[in-house]
Here is the input.
Amino acid sequence: MKYLVTGAAGFIGYYVSQRLCDLGHQVVGIDNLNDYYDVGLKNARLHQLDRYDCFKFQKLCLSDRSGIEHLFAIEKFDRVIHLAAQAGVRYSIDNPMAYIDANLVGMATILEGCRHNKVKHLVFASSSSVYGLNTKTPFAVNDAVDHPVSLYAATKKSNELMAHTYAHLYDIPVTGLRFFTVYGPWGRPDMAPIKFAKRIVNGEAIDIYNNGNLQRDFTYIDDIVEGIIRVQDVIPQPESGWTPETGSAGTSSAPYRVYNIGHGHPVKLMDFIAGLENALGIEAKKNFMPMQPGDVYTTYADTEDLYQATGYKPSVSIEEGVERFVRWFREYYE
Here is the structure.
């Protein structure tokens, strides 16, 4: 089959493209290679994909309507895995328009491409951030997600609404995945693992928000990719008899599904830092800070729906995942 993977130079997009090629599929990857974080890292990921004859890359911005339209018309994709977005909760506070262009306009161009070219399944990236002010744990797809605390989260919830509309109006099978704190080799340098590791090895203090009283459902990249690969084979069907009053928020009378994709075991931030310290063999200098605007205290995924749909549960422990990350970190950065 032929796949479009958006955000192919990104963390998750790189791994998904690689896995699809290993499975023998054709993959077209697009990315705008913006400078939100180190473009060199993005190019290094693409260089790793150069060895695959079945992979080709095109630099393209999601908000380029004519460019996306032309790409769909020429390539005739069977399936689309839409992972590109302007990421980062904190960055959205200072640069909101970047999220409007990439996450809202970009989602619309992808949906239009799928609509006009009879794509058999669209899988797209949502986020655990949509749970916002929700305090019930674990987070389940039936929980209310109407009170986001960042524009990033609001755009991701909007993506889910846009996707459902297209599934309802145009019968496009669509699956949304709410990702929970993905980490591992080749990860984003704006996220805690690389930020912390760099500061620790350089002897600099790490900033720890809410005085360390945070929990995150850290999920290793291999587990995330396995979940994506499995779920893209589970094409949603309309649920007979579904109504908003009695049905699950993760299903619909349209060919639409939403799943949490996480480890299902939240880790205290201080325990994660201790794991980094052990793997690096260096004790971190710590600068305890108050809670940041747009942040949440805990993320914790209820993944039972995904397990029922795909039969898959994450298997990489936090200890093993951190060890693998640190081995890559030392090789790549040192």
Remarks:
- The chain has eleven helices and 13 strands.
